[in-house]
Amino acid sequence: MPGEGKPTFCGIVHWISFFSAREIVMCSKIEAMKLVRSENSVSRRISDLLIEYTVRSSDESRRSRCYSTGMTEQKKRIPKELE
Question: What are the Basic and acidic residues biased-composition ranges (predicted)?
């Protein structure tokens, strides 16, 4: 049965590669967390800029709607000379 008796070369390589891969993943996660913490101020600034851009673009679209509505209302008005 597998797992009984002397360990085989393939079994040893399998477990070494398994634990090495697991260690690499853990180290990568730790490094990623360190990077996120160090870059936290940058990510906050980016999110602030995205919020600012969203607010600006919604304001501009509101303004353009107001301008387009104003233009159509002006076109509909009949000048006083023609009344």
Answer: 73-83
